[in-house]
Hints:
Layout: E1 3-12, H1 17-27, E2 32-40, E3 45-55, H2 56-67, E4 72-80
Antiparallel strand pairs: 1-3, 1-4, 2-3
Amino acid sequence: xxxxxxxxxxxxxxxxxxxxxxxxxxxxxxxxxxxxxxxxxxxxxxxxxxxxxxxxxxxxxxxxxxxxxxxxxxxxxxxxx
Length: 81
């Protein structure tokens, strides 16, 4: 299957979800190229941006699993390589 490069933006508004997000990202660590996380304490939100290279179905699965977590919002934007 053809690989795509994607950016997944993640907002964590429930601090209890942060550990679950990190565990899930570890499951997909083989396709994560880079990651940047910023705690925005004044607004009580953590913002994570990850760049991945994988098949579209795997990118969608990761983004979907993140988005189904309570207190987490995730969106993906992708392109073909």
